[in-house]
Structure formats: structure tokens, C-alpha cells
TrEMBL record:
It holds the Pfam family Glyco_transf_15. GO terms for molecular function: alpha-1,2-mannosyltransferase activity. This is Glycosyltransferase family 15 protein. The keyword Nucleotide-binding does not apply. The keyword Metal-binding does not apply.
Length: 440
């Protein structure tokens, strides 16, 4: 009997020892991973841009998210509630994700062919399942012309659930990690301050007047999302830089250097390849709202801004010039800055995403034009690009030959009267690329 009591005591002691060992080991192994996830999600939470918990919602498996689907971890985006909150700190806050990519921990990028440090950057695409073949074409071009040597990640965002075909095909085409996020309902829908009847009448009227996408609700949600929310999607919080890619684009030349690194090294925050005039009917009161914002927040207006690009009369009226935002390489920390978030909030409350049809291109362009010093905006002449119906084919024959371009220089839109790029060069007193007169 005494022997079996001792035996029982040994078992109880061993049981408690095991619990103790398990507790120590699980808390220490979690620390490293958690530091990362917390850095990602807490960044904006600390600043008040994000509300609610959710650091654990970000997939840090280090594998393709498609692969981790099998473990039930996809579409992580709607777990966190990145609701509109008060504005953040300035973009330069050391708490924001920075570059280069650290190369350690679960957010490290896989090795790349190109030497040197990579920026903490990702491609980002908003798409529906039905876009799969058009976006595949875009991905293939981006990979062939650039990313095969860099393996940057690719974030796909959708207001619905991505299906298996979309994930399978796009995961196969991307050289970096492919990640799939679902958009929070709060960011893709009518805000409660919108008068539904009024918005409906506008759509009917625009339909009658045959204004492109004038009767579309989803197009308006898309424009509002691209204007104010994509950069605070939980998956995007891990990155400092983004490159927006849309379905059915073309890249006509090799990109033999890292544009993200170029942006970082040269202190750029926003960039473009095509610029043009916006349809007036879609933004009749946008500039009035912008002027109200400027009056209310003079502290957000940069001294050396690009007002001359946006207005021919010192800001009284808008000339409708904008950078075409279906291509963008930019800094996410800038979009997450107090200045940009307050600008978006202000315009959102004005209601023009629904009472008119404000596009994300003029919204981003006006922000960059007024709130960034002009040296922080870059024109990529060497990135040859097409999105229906416009082409940017680099000016200068030698450049086109060196970069193995296959665009016809006659299709280049830059020096066309409907482009604003000429104005950009004049404002910045930049010499036009060699040979531009011949390509006008
Ligand atoms: N998930 C989702 N993506 C959309 C929706 N509408 C447009 N997009 C995406 O938003 C971007 C802009 O839309 P697009 O149709 O190309 O507009 P356009 O370039 O102005 O003609 C593209 O990346 C589309 O795939 C939508 O309702 N849902
Ligand atoms: Mg498009």
C-alpha cells in the first residue's frame, strides 16, 4: 500500500512537472513570432487608425497563403476590424513598417536572384474571381519583366471570397508569396451618413447622361476603397511600399532595377506613368471640397507643392489633371499618415463618392499634389505601360532598345494634348526626354 502511494505521488509530481515544462516552452517559442504579428497589427492600432484586436489574424506562416488555406487560414482580412479611427501619426513615425525587409522572422522574403536588400514592399491587386484571366496576363508580364528576379509578395484583395481557381492560378504565376484578403464590410458599402434616395437619383441621372460607370454602385465602392482603405487592410500593414496592378495591363520594357528601392533611395512617396484630364461630370464639386479641406487643415499642405500641376489659376479652379492611378508605386506610410487619413475622412463625409462619382485617381493625385513636396512625386519614363486605352511608351529610342521594349513609340500618350505629363515637366522645369519632339 505504502509503495503504491509513493508511486501515485511520483505520477502527480511528474504531471505537474510536465505542465510546468509545457508552459515555459510554449510561452518562449511564441515570443518571436508574436513580436512580428504585433508589430504588423499594432502599428496602426497604437496610432488609433486600427481599432480592435486582431494581431493574430495576419498570416505569418511564411508560405503562400493558398498553401495555408488547407489549414483554414485564408481570407484573414475580415477578422480584424480596421474601422475608421482618429488619424494616425506622421508617416515618419518609427512605428510604421520600414524598409529594407529585415530578412528574418516570418515576414522575411524568400531569396531572390537580384543582389542587395529588398524593400518592405508588395504588389497589390483588387479583383473579383471573374478577373482571373485578365489579372493572370498582368501578373505574367510583371513577373517576366521584373519580379522574377526580386520575388516580391503579391496581395490580392476582394470584397467577396476568392475561389480556388483564382488562388491556384495566381499562386502559380507569382514568384513571391501570394496572399488573399477579404475586405471588411465596413470598407465596402454605403456609410450610414449617405442618403440612399439621393444617391440613387444621381445614379439614374448619370445613367441617362451615359456617364461611364455612372449607374454603378460597385464601381463607387471600389473607388472609395482604393481612395481610403486598401492601405490599412490587415495584410497591407506589414509593408511600407506598394505597386498597384490591375487586370489586362501590359509592361512593354524590361525593368532591370528595383523601382521600390529607387523610390526609397530618392525619397519619393508617389509615382506615375500616365496622366490625363478627368471627366468633369464625375467630380463637379470635388475641388470645392478640397478647398474647404485646405482651409481647415493648412498644416497638411506642403510648402513646395504641385498646385501648378492641378490648377491654372493658383488654386481657384481645378484643371482636372490627375495621375492615372491604375498604375502606382507609392509609400503606404504616407497614405497611413495623419495628413492623408484626415484628407480622406473629410472628403468621404462630403459624400461625393456617392452623390457624384469621385474616382480614386483624382483623390490620390490631389493628395499627392498638395500634401507632398513636388520632389517626392516621380515620373517613371522607363516603365512602359498600357491600360486600356492609353500607352506610355518611353521616349528615347536608345532606352527602348536597351530595355528590350516592344511598344510602338507612336502610341505614346505623354506628349498628346490630352495628357498632363507635359505640364508636369514644365512645372518641375525638367528637361524633356531626348527625342520627344519627334514623338509628339
Ligand atoms: N473585388 C472587386 N474588385 C473590383 C470591383 N470592381 C472593380 N474591381 C477592381 O478594381 C480595379 C479597377 O476596376 P476596373 O474595372 O479596372 O476600372 P477602370 O480601370 O476604371 O475601368 C480593378 O483591379 C478591378 O479588378 C468589384 O466590384 N469587386
Ligand atoms: Mg482597370
Amino acid at each position: 500500500m505504502a509503495g503504491s502511494t509513493r508511486y501515485l505521488r511520483y505520477i502527480i509530481a511528474a504531471f505537474f512537472a510536465l505542465i510546468f515544462i509545457f508552459f515555459i516552452s510554449s510561452s518562449s517559442t511564441r515570443t518571436i513570432g508574436q513580436q512580428y504579428t504585433q508589430t504588423a497589427a499594432d502599428i496602426l492600432k497604437n496610432q488609433g487608425i486600427l481599432r480592435g484586436g486582431g494581431s493574430g489574424a495576419i498570416d505569418t506562416s511564411g508560405k503562400s497563403t493558398f498553401a495555408s488555406d488547407a489549414q483554414g487560414k485564408t481570407d484573414v482580412g475580415n477578422v480584424v476590424n480596421p474601422a475608421m479611427g482618429p488619424a494616425s501619426t506622421e508617416a515618419s513615425s518609427p512605428k510604421q513598417p520600414t524598409s529594407p525587409n529585415t530578412g528574418i522572422g516570418p515576414t522575411a522574403f524568400p531569396p531572390a536572384k537580384a543582389p542587395g536588400a529588398r524593400m518592405n514592399a508588395t504588389f497589390v491587386t483588387l479583383a473579383r474571381n471573374s478577373d482571373v484571366w485578365e489579372i493572370s496576363r498582368s501578373i505574367r508580364q510583371v513577373e517576366d519583366r521584373f519580379n522574377h528576379a526580386y520575388n516580391y509578395d503579391w496581395v490580392f484583395l476582394n470584397d467577396g471570397d476568392f475561389d480556388d481557381t483564382f488562388k491556384k492560378v495566381t499562386t502559380a504565376l507569382t514568384s513571391g508569396k501570394a496572399r488573399y484578403g477579404k475586405i471588411d464590410k465596413e470598407h465596402w458599402g454605403f456609410p450610414d451618413f449617405i442618403d440612399q434616395e439621393k444617391a440613387k437619383k444621381v445614379r439614374e441621372d448619370m445613367h441617362e447622361r451615359k456617364i461611364i460607370y455612372g449607374d454603378s454602385i460597385s464601381y463607387r465602392h471600389m473607388c472609395r476603397y482604393e481612395s481610403g482603405f486598401f492601405f490599412r487592410h490587415p495584410l497591407m500593414l506589414e509593408y511600407e511600399w506598394y505597386w498597384r496592378v490591375e487586370p489586362s495591363i501590359e509592361l512593354y520594357c524590361d525593368i532591370a532595377y528595383d523601382p521600390f528601392k529607387f523610390m526609397a533611395d530618392n525619397k519619393k512617396k508617389y509615382s506615375f506613368v500616365l496622366s490625363l484630364y478627368e471627366y468633369v461630370e464625375t467630380i463637379p464639386t470635388l475641388w470645392d471640397s478640397v478647398k474647404k479641406f485646405m482651409k481647415q487643415h493648412p498644416e497638411h499642405i506642403a510648402d513646395n507643392n504641385s498646385m501648378e500641376f492641378l490648377s491654372d489659376d493658383g488654386g481657384v479652379t481645378y484643371n482636372h489633371c490627375h495621375f492615372w492611378s491604375n498604375f502606382e508605386i507609392g509609400n503606404l506610410n504616407w497614405l497611413r499618415s495623419k495628413a492623408y487619413v484626415e484628407y480622406f475622412d473629410f472628403l468621404d463625409k462630403e459624400g461625393g463618392f456617392f452623390y457624384e462619382r469621385w474616382g480614386d485617381a483624382p483623390i490620390h493625385s490631389i493628395a499627392a499634389g498638395l500634401m507632398l513636396p513636388k520632389e517626392e512625386i516621380h515620373f517613371f519614363n522607363d516603365i512602359a505601360y498600357y491600360h486600356v486605352p492609353f500607352t506610355h511608351c518611353p521616349t528615347g529610342e536608345q532606352m527602348r532598345l536597351d530595355l528590350k521594349c516592344h511598344c510602338n513609340p507612336k502610341d505614346n500618350f505623354d506628349w498628346n494634348g490630352y495628357s498632363c505629363t507635359n505640364r508636369w515637366f514644365d512645372m518641375n522645369k525638367l528637361p524633356k526626354p531626348e527625342g520627344y519632339e519627334k514623338e509628339q
